[in-house]
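Q: I have two molecules that I believe assemble together. Could you output structure tokens for the complex as a whole instead of separate predictions?
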Amino acid sequence: MSQIPGILKGLKVTFRTMMKTLFPGGIKNPVPRPSEGALTVQYPHEKEAPPTRARGVIALHEGNCTACMLCARECPDWCIYIEGHKELAPPRRAGGQPRKVNALDRFDIDYSLCMYCGICVEVCPFDALFWTPEYEFSELRLADLLHDKERLSEWMHTVPDYEEYEAGSEQKQRKVPR
Amino acid sequence: MTSVLALDPAWWQETFLIKVPIGLLAVLLPAGTIVYLYLFKAISFMQSRLGPMEAGPYGSLQLLAEVGKWLQKEDIFPTKADKFVFAAAPFVVLMSTFLLVVIIPAGPDAMFVNLDAGIYFAMAVSSVSVIGILMAGWASANKYSLLGGIRAAGQLIAYELPLILAVVGVVIQAGTMNMQGIVLAQAEGEILGWGGIGNPFILTQFIGFFIFMVAVQAELTQAPFDMPVAESELVTGYLTEYSGIRFLLFFIGEFASAGVFSAIAAVLFFGGWYIPGIDPANDIFNVIGPLILAGKMMAIAFLIFWFRFTFPRFREDQLQRLAWKFLIPLSLANIALTGVLKVVV
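A: Yes, here they are, computed for all two components at once.
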């Protein structure tokens, strides 16, 4: 007998949720409009804007990458493949020695292995990797999930700007390289 | 039944052209409506989501898509299964549903068979589904199936008693076991001398109605009484090894019996095809009666599914305790009270 109030309460919760979903206008405007009352979104037809710092896919700014391999080594899944070679670049000042720079030959992320931990983005010392909130990059073939550096660079334009720091902060505002 | 249509067909015409299609319609249409309205939509709304939306307007053709999917699937028999029993089990379950439809009155003449002991017949054939479920559990050669089948048998036998005892109260009050007689007793009844709305037995037999609905919930193995198919413990119990069309038959059986039991509850407690204001002998009830009955049936089926979507599963011992220690004594007390009042009043 002591269970009865709980039973009735449970029934009330489900019934009220149903009514709220079916009649979002409430008692004053009882027109069934479940599409407005439901908390869900009919995905392919309408999309929710993901939060700006959502971890969707990782973008590569190729110009900043020095092929230092830190990301590839820290990756728990070993899903980053980097190949590079040393090149001689013209000296900064006339008469100086030619500089040695690392040129990037290959930068692939295998998204069929990636677990979106973001360690590569955190560990990158040269601001070459960024999270973007884009999430629609599914493929029909598994092998197509291996994104090469051209594909990864295409995501760069979707990287959102860093948020403004709070007032009074003495940190220098970080900028996303465009 | 044929007298409704003012025809005089031969026996085979009556059977194959009228009774079989109408019977199929009477089983499949409520089952489909219940699945779409309640299993797909009401539960979704109760969880603040929309449910199927893609197949047809508001997902109304989703069930056809699901049926098409099931029909395409391979009909798998486990190697060690008892082939004949395994294949026959879903038909036994479905047969009990079809036999139940036979005695439900949808109008003064709109019914298949007018048995003198209609409700007795209904209670008898509703227990046949236990045999089908036990057959499925045993023949699958799978320990989860067997456990599910045995749980189902224990549960259905335990809840058969309160179900029947709850009906006894109605039978005492109506003074007949004939389903038409029960409807007419409610249509022609009077509440303390006032016959404006007849006397639907829900007013006097509300304890019986409560016991009946709880027992029906358990008979249909709907949550919170779904231990026989408890998916977290037994995979899906006696359904584990079934696929394709045989699973579909079990599925239809489950939801068609939900509709049929709701219809029986509508007849027993809400006056069946009768609505106040029209003389129950009026022939118009042969036309509007089925619609009235369907409306009452859907309202009662909503109760079943409302409970199903609200509560989590019982434990096996809690289930048995509820049946034997609470529902059966309560229903016996209800019978005693009804009997005393029948004699005194």
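A: One point stands out. DSSP finds 13 helices and no strands in chain B.
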